[in-house]
Amino acid sequence: MKLPKRLLWTGCLLLTTFIVFAQDKNIDGRVTDTQTGDPLPDVTVSLKNSTTSTVTDPDGNFAIHSNSEDEITLVFTIVGYRSQQIQVNGNEFVRVALQSEARGLDEVVVIGYGAQKRANLTGAVGTIKSDVLKDRSITNASQALAGQIAGVWVNQTSGQPGVDGATINIRGIGTFGNSSPLVLIDGIQGSFNSVNPNDIESISVLKDASSSAIYGSRAANGVILIVTKSGKKGPLAVDLNSYWGRQKATILPEMVSNSVEAMELYNQAIKNEGQAEHYAQSVIDEYKAGKDPLIYPNNDWMKLIIRPASLQEHNIRLSGGKEETQYSMSVGYLDQDGVVKNDQSKRYSLNLNLRSKVSDRFDWGIHTNLINSSIDQSYYSGFGYNSSIGMLTELVRAMPFHGTYTPDGHYASTWVNAVNAQFNNPLAMVDNGLNRTTNNSANGNVFFNLEIIKGLKWNVTGGVNYLDNMQERFIPELYVYDPKTEGLKNRIGNDSRSLNNLYSKSLLTTLYSTLTYNRTIARNHEITALVGFNREKYTDKYMSAYIEGFLNNSLTELNAGSSNKNVTGGGTDYGIRSLFGRLNYAYRGKYLLEANLRYDGSSRFAAANRWGLFPSFSAGWRIDKEAFMEDQQIFSNLKLRASWGKLGNDQIGLYSWIPTLSLGSDYYFNGQASTGVAQTAVSNPDITWESSIKTDVGIEAGFLQNRLSVEFDYFDDLRQDILRYINLPWTVGDLVAPAENLASVRNKGWEFSANYTENAGKVRLSGGFNVTHVTNKVVKIPDPQIGFLILKEGESMNAFFKHRKRWITARYRQEGLLSQGILSLRM
């Protein structure tokens, strides 16, 4: 029997359809985070060796279709996670858990006007976090950088309480003027003295042009970004951090503390030179038989003045919040005694950070840092002290037979015929007078963020940095007496009993606004664009009052003086306005590009030279993301980066470009003095920006899931048009010389760092070291300086010299190897 044709064709069609569907594969699945179990949206799911792909939805789900009869391989990729491949045989539900990138790569690093993942950085940026800071007992935030970041030179020149901040230079010194980096606290210019180290969440150091060009005219010396701690979602958390310690001088001169021995040694010394003995044997014999320790002392003056000192600090923080609002508030107290008797410093701090989310598109917040500090020291040093004597000098010159006090309580000298007839008792110098400095600072800002459309955010931030400073210095009249006869020996110093007070205050106001747009195109092209405007205004005022004629050493107020009154005062201001922008592009997280541009105008220059343009460009290649690196097990991270840019520097006197007049110049008319005004400085309207051309090439590598990370950079910094005050011939009169753009200086070198971190249960072990080599050379200088220090083409800045016949030979160069490191263990 024959089947109808229609039925035959229908059967063939059904059979063909069944065969086609038997070959198709529909794979569904869900992608989550390995550690948290949270779903991962926007993960790219693709068929290996095919153009077919899809992305996961907000719940991490996906569906993909394949026509292949063979076993297929799914590839899962997303920035911040390690790619993963899974083989699939047929229609099935696939569960995939992606592992976060090797530790450190997904770390968010604060940069200019924003933040980036470390993996996507194309500039040279060093960072330290709060967990590093809390391992160290530091009293000034600048000390936190010591030994931590390659290329950062930290030099703490004083251990005196309250003035123990460090000098910081980034990749050498490239200018004759101010070489300190720009410091920003939560986006507002400040200083390390304006923040309690315990309140710091992170510190970022921007070292090359790519990372710092967004700050343009002030970034030539590098930029340091400080972020203070903020609140996190959760119940109220109370953190208490307290410590107490002791400090002591590590190396002191070894002094002879036996008076008889001192006199005998001196006699022997001058006898060896053919001179007669200075101390009579009768005096030595009397001293040997003497019993009264006030008349026949054996004093170790180093131990009398310099002794171990206590240090204590207490900080308490309250933080927490709900989904909409998070807060953090801390109060701190520091009390530090100096190793020199009666030196002391105290600091009180308050930090308040608040962030509130009003809606899905709008949030606002505040950052506030308040500091009150005081420094007490004796009158012999510091502000307003110009005498030829100093306590430390007198301490070294003091002999063991110099007494402390006479039997009736006066400050003593000695009855012995000392070599130094004038003895200025160090105890009298540290126990009397007044030398106090009081500082109040406020650094903070208010901001809001508005998402105008998806991916486009608008930020407005307004902030202030306020500082007032009061310095009081009272010089007493002090005398020392013979401990045996009670007769007057001499007066300490020759300064008049006087009081000098100086009060100053400064205010920096900042307003900046940015628009940031972020978009991912076709899943592989990520673009971030930022444009912004910045305005800053700085004002300061000061007043100084001096008076003499005090009746005694106890009354130390201005109205207790009566003669030689002198009052001075003044003020300055300047401003800066800027436009800036940044463009970032990343292709599949492998190929990275960045461009920055800033256009600055500074009131330090004349209108014709006021504006400067500062660009930078950088690129990065994440080699470990390439297909040929997928099967290797050596590198957890491997990135090559390079940058070039031009930065600026305007740190010079405020009014160098206009003629300035000085009051108080007296003229005589008809034999009578009349107060007048005179020009005392020569101006130069042609001065303009110093420029810094920076080039950097670096490579970063990570091993053992980034437990071990290494980094190497080569850098070159050519500073041009350096501002320098020129020398004027005496024929022009007694005028202050003008500044000119005269010189060029080059710093080039390399830096290497290695860090290792290991977590073993609750124990965290970390260690690292870094090495930096910098060569400094003056490339151009029309007026060489040949003196104790050399400024000469071909030599390092400020090289020492030694005359050798007719040749001058440099004895010191700013070229050297800086190595530093740190090891920490936390449980």
Quick rundown:
The chain is mainly beta. 8% of the residues lie in helices and 51% in strands. The strands form 9 sheets. It has an 18-stranded antiparallel sheet. The chain has a 5-stranded mixed sheet with strand order 10-15-16-13-14. A 4-stranded antiparallel sheet has the order 3-2-5-6, with no helix packed on it.
Any overview of this molecule?
This protein has 8 helices and 42 strands. The longest helix is centred in the first third of the chain and has 19 residues, at 5-23. Helix content is 8%, strand content 51%. The chain has 827 residues and is mostly beta strands.
Keyword list:
827 residues, mainly beta, 18-stranded antiparallel β-sheet, five-stranded mixed β-sheet, 8 helices, 42 strands, elongated, disordered N terminus, disordered C terminus
Distance between the termini: 90 Å
Based on CA atoms alone, the radius of gyration comes out at 35 Å
Total strand segments: 42
Structural class, by secondary structure, is mainly beta
Helical amount: under 10%
- Average pLDDT level: 86
User: What proportion of the residues form beta strands (DSSP E)?
Assistant: over 45%
Total count of helical runs of at least 4 residues: 8
Low-confidence stretches: 1-5, 7-22, 803-816, 822-827
**Tertiary shape:** elongated
SSE layout and pairings?
Elements: H1 5-23, E1 25-33, E2 44-47, E3 53-55, E4 61-66, E5 72-77, E6 84-88, E7 93-98, E8 108-111, E9 114-117, E10 125-129, H2 130-133, E11 152-155, E12 167-170, E13 182-185, E14 188-189, E15 200-206, H3 209-212, E16 223-228, E17 234-247, H4 259-272, H5 281-289, H6 301-305, E18 309-321, E19 325-337, E20 344-357, E21 362-376, H7 391-397, H8 426-431, E22 434-453, E23 456-475, E24 479-481, E25 488-491, E26 498-521, E27 525-548, E28 563-587, E29 591-602, E30 611-622, E31 635-649, E32 661-669, E33 672-679, E34 690-703, E35 708-725, E36 739-760, E37 763-780, E38 785-786, E39 789-791, E40 799-804, E41 807-810, E42 815-826
